[in-house]
TrEMBL record:
Keywords for the protein's UniProt record, in alphabetical order: Signal
InterPro entries, sorted: Secre_tail
Protein name stated in the entry: Por secretion system C-terminal sorting domain-containing protein
Residue span(s) of domain Secretion system C-terminal sorting: 2-65
């Protein structure tokens, strides 16, 4: 899975995925440069709906992710 950070921020991104019942199933930290694509290996996750939260410094973005 690729995620593009449409941001002018550089720094360390904290990326967390939560299952539909709220359990944290994936967490990582990646160094990012503005507008960079980050690749995440989510091959070991089961099919389903997840919530992804990405935080860089004091800004965060949360979105729904569906793995087929």
């Amino acid at each position: 899975m690729n995620i593009k950070f449409p941001s002018t921020e550089n720094g360390t991104a904290s990326i967390n995925l939560f299952s539909s019942n709220g359990s944290k199933v994936y967490t990582t930290k990646k160094s990012v440069i503005s507008d960079e694509k980050i690749e995440l290996n989510l091959g070991n996750l089961a099919k389903g709906t997840y919530v992804c939260k990405i935080q860089i410094e004091d800004r965060s973005k949360t979105f729904k992710l569906v793995k087929n």
